[in-house]
Amino acid sequence: MSDPRSAQADALMGELQRQGAGRLTIFLGAAPGVGKTYTMLGRARELQRRGIDVVVGIVETHGRAETSALVEGLDVLPRKRSDYQSRTLEEMDLDALIARQPKVALVDELAHRNAPGSRHERRWQDVLELLDAGIDVYTTVNIQHLESLNDVVHRITGVRVSETVPDALFDRLRDIVLVDLPPRELIERLQQGKVYVPEQAAHALQAFFSPSNLTALRELAMQTAADRVDSDLREAQTARGLPGVPLRRAVMVAIDGLGQSEYLVRVARRLAERRDAPWLVVTVQTGGAPDAQSQSELDRAFALARRLGGEAVVLHGNSIVDALLDHAERAGVSTIVLGRTRERPLARMVNRTLTQQLIQRGAHYELTIVSTPEARARARRSLRENGGRLRGLLSRSDAALAVFAVAMAVILAGFAERWIGLDDLSLVFIVAVVVVAARTRMTAAVLASALCFLAYNFFFIEPRYTLLIGARQGVTTVTLFLVAALVAGRLASKLRMQVLALRASNAHATELQTLGRELATAADAGQVMRAGKRALKRSLGAEVFVYVGQAPLAGPNLPELSDKDRAAADWALKHRQPAGRYTDTLAGSDWWLLPLAGDAGDKPAAGLVGLRLPPSLTRLGPEQRRLAEAMTDDIAQAVLRTRLVADLEDSRVSGETERLRSALLSSVSHDLRSPLASIIGAASSLDNYADAMPREDRHALLETIRIEGERLDRYIQNLLDMTRLGHGGLALNRDWIGVDELIGSAVTRLQRYEPAARFELRVQPGLGPIWVHPALIEQALFNVLENAVKFSPADAAVTVDARRVDGEPGGPDHLLRIDVSDRGPGIPEDERARIFDMFYSVERGDRGRQGTGLGLAICQGMIGAHGGSVVALPGQPDAQGRRGTTIRITLPPIEPEPKADAAAP
Questions:
Q1: How far is it, in rounded angstroms, from Cα 743 to Cα 867?
Q2: Which of 129, 200, 122 is nearest to 162 (CA)?
Q3: Residue 147's Cα: distance from chain center in Å?
Q4: DSSP letters along 455-491, please?
Q5: φ and ψ at 557, to 5 degrees?
Q6: Are 838 and 663 in contact (CB under 8 A)?
Q7: Around Cβ 813, how many Cβ atoms within 10 Å?
Q8: Which residues contact 159 (CB under 8 A, 6 or more apart)?
Q9: Rounded CA separation 222/216 (Å)
Q10: CB under 8 Å to 714, separation ≥6 — which residues?
Q11: Does residue 593 contact residue 610 with C-beta atoms inside 8 Å?
């Protein structure tokens, strides 16, 4: 049982989806002439009087004056004309109607077949597109055009209706209006010429419009309307969470492609509709692929099931009963529908056995056995005319193999008896039966068993060269041989069918698994497109293109497409539905176009997959269709994944950029404006009071301007250096320079800005010069020293210790290490690595709110450009217990490259 809350959510979701799209109102009649179009036009005129925008998309008056009078005064859309075989055909202009966007569109004769070359083959497909565009539709249809009632109407009237409407369209219904007329009154209208012209009316009265036919069709129309009202009531109660509405379990119909598949599909659809239950159609393949005639019937039945709103599934297994019961359990099936046995050799016994096994083992299932007299009569005619379907069970190649194997067994048995002295020759014939069974169907194995039985008896059982058996033990021998041959053939055939079934089921799983691995490693949409194209081409043998983007199609990697192909592709992208070949939408295209619609919603598809299969492949098997659709879904999910990853990366980069921008603005607003304020204030004082100031005060103001200007210059230089580091524009111009010279230059430069700063320098004796970019290393030292001076107490000196240390194993033998230690408050351990990030500042430690937060980041970039490293370490405590921080700079020894000898010969 389903969760009531889930069912309520589904019902509410369905109601919201119907409200978001256009609403469909069907005027349903039992037969032509009951007044459907007249009633629809009358309702439309009422809406027009209420100020609602109503447009006549297409209405067929058939020359009836009353109907034509109702059309007058309504906004009628001009029809679209097309030339076909020297004739001019008129159809509804779908594009113009969508562009007009009325509130309500009138579309008569829902089951009408459109003119060749139209976008859709049937008018009901045009109505679906109007509903998806948010336009309410009023339409008309007779009960005989309902797809699931096609066989019922044929049995009642003897007329097979070719123009049908899928029952799934009724799921889009908002209202259904039953237009009813008693049979007597309808016949009177027909006789008066209000339905057909007199010649057609006379013929109709003798065939379709008999009182009994009209009564039965009227009952069907009322039953359909009642079922829809009941379904709407159940959905409304479920949406409100009312109890007492049990959900039905699924109905499963099993078909075999042997003459009654479409009939069974329609029966299952009607049964599921009455029970308000989901339904599915299955076929079981126990060995190789079915013959062409059976496969064609299965394809038609599956296509019909999809049109009627059911699910089509191909099962693989060694046992039909096991496969059906296993799938029934997984799919939550309560009812299994089967066809009754047909009069055919062998198949009759097998089918009855299948039914009996289902009855014995399917105790929890309701079995519905459907009788099909028409199929049985057709089977009898086929049996009388050409020996039935036995040839379909035994092909010429299988029969030839069986005869050849028996002939070889006779030769080998004669050789073994004469030259080897083998007494038990039955083993030779059993091997022949096993070989045939392992390579063909069970029918060929039975034929081989019978032929081996006759050959063994004729050539090797006394009296020889007759079919007589001279001794009792001979009868026992040949009888046991026949039993053993049949059992061995059955086992070998069963094993072969099992292998073929596993091979067929694993082939698609392997293709999907391979595609999944390739898509999992795809980092962007381009790699997804290439992986999907390779997989589809490899598995289906088709010309493939994969397009990611919106309509209209554009890009350098697309194949050459005709205008018809592009129209079908753009429609599939926009409406998220397949189009082109093997579909009912723009079927004239050479491409089968599947949208990449991996996400739900009303958005256009993320892309498109185009498949052009060989022209000789006029129909598409269900396994090929399922594989292509499954691969397309995987590609769509991969495209959406790459888009999500790209969006997340863009969001991350955007957030990081915003963070850096905010930090830079904060730095500019505080750290860069502070020296500017000092410079402006000092310059303003000099300008206004220079004459009244003592010389010492003027000199102090000028010194302030110089110091603050140099401070501003350092900030700007830091920003420029950081920009160069970030864009890889930092070039190293190396030269030899002494370590003591580098440290002394940086200390001297800093003391010009911080005269009170104290330093304790410890340079290891004997340190030679280093091969570096002097200006960059000096700037890096300057930034570290400036940072240390800011937080070191006035009575404590900043210590600079430079020495040579041993390198790590596997690295350089020795390294240059420079430690800069202060006696400040120190840096918490969890923040030491972050102090080298741009614009990172904290109130505690050596990276307080002073400064731009770029000094140590620039230092790390400059030292890193030399192959070195910069780390923050806790300092050594002094006598007062102050620990401080040590910034350690490590540089590897680098020697200059030897210059080429210009004098070398």
A1: 19
A2: 122
A3: 30
A4: HHHHHHSSSTTSS---SHHHHHHHHHHHHHHHHHHHH
A5: -95, 5
A6: yes
A7: 8
A8: 144, 153, 207, 208
A9: 10
A10: none
A11: yes
Q: Which of 72-76, 672-676, 837-841 has the highest mean pLDDT?
A: 72-76
Dump pLDDT digits (tens) for 707-749. Answer: 778 777 766 766 666 566 555 556 677 888 898 888 888 888 7
* 603, pLDDT greater than 70: no
Residue 387: strand, helix, or coil: coil
β-bridge pairing 607-612 and 592-595 = antiparallel
**Which of residues 873 and 898 earns the better pLDDT score?**
873
Distance CA 149, CA 133 (A): 29
> How far is the C-alpha of 35 from the C-alpha of 246, rounded, in Å?
38
- Which tokens belong to 516? 């999944």
Residue type, 897: E
Q: Which of 801, 804, 828 is nearest to 887 (CA)?
A: 801
Residue pair 82/117 in contact by the 8 Å Cβ criterion: yes
Contact 742, 778 (CB under 8 A): yes
Query: Does pTM surpass 0.85?
Result: no
How far apart CA 331 and CA 250 sit, in angstroms, is 7
Question: Of 550, 542, 589, 546, which Cα lies nearest the Cα of 567?
Answer: 589
Contact 312, 280 (CB under 8 A): yes
pLDDT digits (tens, 9 = 90+) for 56-98: 999 988 777 888 888 998 999 999 888 877 788 889 999 999 9
The tokens describing 354, both together, are 């299948």
- pLDDT tens sequence across 16-40: 555 657 889 999 988 888 888 989 9
Dihedral of the CA atoms 301, 305, 306, 309 (nearest 10)? Answer: 170
Q: What backbone phi and psi angles, to 5 degrees, belong to 628?
A: -60, -45
For residue 361, give Cα distances in angstroms to 61, 325, 353, 365: 58, 8, 12, 9
Torsion sign, CA atoms 624, 629, 633, 638: positive
402, 451 Cβ separation under 8 angstroms: yes
Q: Is-contact 46 160, C-beta < 8 A?
A: no
User: What contacts 24+ positions apart, CB below 8 Å, involve 147-150?
Assistant: 147/266, 147/269, 147/304, 147/307, 147/308, 148/266, 148/269, 148/270, 148/273, 148/308, 149/220, 149/224, 149/266, 149/270, 150/266
Give strand ranges (E) for 748-846.
759-763, 770-772, 798-806, 814-821
Phi, psi torsion values for 585, nearest 5 degrees: -115, 115
What's the rounded mean pLDDT across residues 526-552? 85
Q: Can you name the residues that pair with 416 across neighbouring β-strands?
A: none
**CA 626 distance to own-chain centroid:** 13
